[in-house]
Amino acid sequence: MTALETAAEPREIHRLDYRPPTFWVDSVALEFDLGEEGTVVTARLSLRRNDEVAEGPLELDGEELETLSVAVDGRVLGQGEYTIEGERLTIPDLPARCELETKVRIHPESNTQLSGLYLSSGNFCTQCEAEGFRRITWFLDRPDVMATYTVAIRADKQRYPVLLSNGNRVGERDLGDGRHEVRWEDPFVKPSYLFALVAGQLASHAGDFTTVSGRTVRCEIWVEAHNLDKCDHALRSLQAAMRWDEEQFGREYDLDLYMIVAVDDFNMGAMENKGLNIFNSKFVLARPDTATDDDYEGVEGVVAHEYFHNWTGNRVTCRDWFQLTLKEGLTVFRDQRFSADMGSEPVKRIEDVAMLRLRQYAEDAGPMAHPIRPESYISMDNFYTATVYEKGSEVIRMVDTLLGRDGFRRGMDLYFERHDGQAVTCDDFRAAMADANGRDLAQFERWYTQAGTPRLVATGRFDAAAGTYSLTLRQECPTGQREEDFRALHMPIRMGLIGPDGADQPLGFEGEAAAGAPTERVLELTEREQTFVFAGLTAEPVPSLARGLSAPVLLELEEDEQRLAFRLAHDSDAFNRWDAGQRLFGAAILAGAAALARGDEFQVSKGLVEAFRAVVTDPSLDGSMRSLAMALPSELELAQRMEIVDPDALHRARRAVRRALAEGTRTELAALWERAKPSGAYSNDRASIDRRREANVALAYLSCLESPEWTAAVAAHFDGADNMTDSQAALATLCQLDVPDRQRALEAFYAKWKGDPLVLDKWFTLQATSVLPGAPTRVAALAHHPDFTWRNPNRVRSVVGAFAMANHSGFHSADGSGYTLVADAVIELQGANPQLASRLAGSFNHYKRYDQHRQQAMRGALERIAAVDGLSKDVYEIVHRALA
Ligand code: PHE
Ligand code: ZN
């Protein structure tokens, strides 16, 4: 140990240290005696020595367990026959096959971490991924140990009438003493992280699904009785996902029962436990007056995501946690495709890429940068990241693009054929894809080993005499990574060349016949630099590259305002049209910020206003597309592109651009509002959703004019809203205005919704993200509101999370009060809920990109957190990486 290290320093786990377990567990029988003050868990494990590992004791994981007894083959072990050291129980001499029985007491009633067995709204529930099962009983708590489970749950009949676990319900009996018992059996082998149990007062909204082979599956959504009228959308989403997986991937559901339980206290979005998903209620409950159109899409996407895990995650799982993207990247890819099929493909793609760039590109450029398959971790909880999930999905998307839809399906079929019932690696997935298609995907592995967002620098040269266009694409090392570690990636670049008339040109390679050439191609890059020469061109084309973001790169291509406006108007790829607009508006805001920082004035160009006007009035755009195309890049996203981030100049510049666009197109905006504003009763069909989106965006722009007329229109929109989409949009707009209607609307909203936690979260968030002066003070007051609690993750995220992640100018207030507030929150939470605290601690990850003064203040905040006595390993890992 060096002088700097301390005994308390958490241990780092490395991917290459993987060793198979010394024992397998074939089956598990669990008994739960649930109690108000302590729960007793009895576990009987059928153990079998792993022949590949001839030696070694049995080592079990356990955390915060009070061990009552340990017995082997019916004989209780004495003190000397096993050891418990910290979080490990070791038994040295065991026969090759035996049954181990342990009895432990645990305390769900005081479990604030929300990992293991805990209480939410008085009901028992579990969360075991990644390492929560060890907080329930002694176990080989690692995903490569797969077993069948039988579960007996005993509890007070009155207080806990509903007792659920994985698989099929196989028995129930009254125990006579006011308690009852329900037994469950899961016939499929699973890793411990997929175990689940729920006990409490719940009611279900149910429906049937008939599988492709004609079996009937009962689908149940379990909620507190007063929420029964908010379950239908989740149920329909589940049924749609089941059908889609049959149609697209030939995957049928395997049990006769599928349950989803909504709980209010949950660290993440939802969990795919076999046959018994447990969800954050945010992704289940939806009614038009309580949930927005976006919330509805969120429910549909998450329900589908968890359902798709049944095959990509549960039937085929991960060998170890470094392989997490094997199930998450693939399942995100599947849910994204599903949502695209349910709604609009380009709209979904734009939303996904916007999120990727905002969260994942930022992560890639900061201290938490890691490959989609990380090399090491201190706490696995910290690696449920945008990189593992969203970039992981982009990597799968590239496989799909490279192999084509049919080739990808062949690869999936082979993957399931080879690995059903197994715990496997990302390499196994890649091998199945390659083998099913006779392709070499060896170089493609680099996407799994290299961190960072590669830059792709494009240059084009038109030779008028020869009629050729040479396109050179060069891969550059990601920012923050070492040049000597960067090796060329295998990436597909979907592209076209747009002619002066706005039409895609035929793409004949030099030496090929131009006639019949496609107007769009996928270029396969495998080298650092490659040049492609297209022939038969009569005029200089405008390149449209990486269409649909065909690879997760930062495309660098010099384009002036005129060219971007041209692509915004003409690119045949809807995604690239949007992207051209984002580049255009982004460049204007950044130029404005630079001017303001210098103390200069700046003007929004006429060209910019005209490009914007074209978007507002383009009859070919649907309302969702229009609203996306009208949205300016956020301050957070633009900050990533500034040399030294100046939050004030950035904020002022973005505001000024917004206002100038609104002033320049007020007539068109008003016409758009008139055409799209609510008329008649709420409906949730696609056209109505589209209309709501464009109406709300138009009104938000008009509100920038700060005229009494438009402020009154926003207030009236709020007062007249018959659905949460309009109500929230209007209130969000009012929250950015310093007008009396803001306070009045906030009070009305509160009075109406104070009894509905999910809607109340919105009320908190809208205030926490207001950029009006004094944001940190207002947020501090919100944290003292009687409805605020540190014990509910959604509530904490709606105040502190929203402020730190979605109120750039407020969080970075020059006096440092925003930093103090967030650091205080991390310190307040880190003992009780380390996972949540560590997410918030990540808000400081980019401090090095800000001015000296802010850097110092953020560094000070990090150091204050680092100095906390007994800092949890989750938070430790985040702050130490940041400070390194
Ligand atoms: N596996 C869950 C999902 O992606 C996410 C999750 C991870 C939930 C860890 C809880 C704990 O759907
Ligand atoms: Zn998942």
In short:
Residues 452-556 form the Peptidase M1 alanyl aminopeptidase Ig-like fold domain. The chain contains 26 helices and 32 strands.
CATH topology of the largest domain: Immunoglobulin-like
Query: Biggest β-sheet: count, sense, barrel?
Result: 8 strands, mixed
Determine the structural class based on helices, strands and strand pairing. Answer: alpha+beta
Oligomer: single chain
Task: Provide mean pLDDT, rounded.
Answer: 97
CATH architecture title of the largest domain = Sandwich
Whole-angstrom Rg: 28 Å
Number of domains: 4
Determine the CATH superfamily of the largest domain: tricorn interacting facor f3 domain
Tell me the name of the CATH class of the largest domain.
Answer: Mainly Beta
Strand order of the largest sheet: 6-5-9-3-2-12-15-14
What do these coordinates show?
The chain is α+β, with helices and mostly antiparallel strands and 884 residues long. It has four domains: 24-308, tricorn interacting facor f3 domain (Immunoglobulin-like, Sandwich), CATH 2.60.40; 323-449, Neutral Protease, domain 2 (Orthogonal Bundle); 456-551, Immunoglobulin-like (Sandwich); 754-884, Alpha Horseshoe (Zincin-like fold). Helix content is 40%, strand content 21%. It contains 26 helices and 32 strands. An eight-stranded mixed β-sheet has the order 6-5-9-3-2-12-15-14, with no helix packed on it. A five-stranded mixed β-sheet has the order 17-18-19-21-20, with helices on one face. Strand 14 (168-174) and strand 15 form a beta hairpin. Helix 4 (345-364) crosses helix 5 (386-419) and helix 8 (561-570) runs parallel beside helix 10 (606-617). The structure holds phenylalanine and zinc ion.
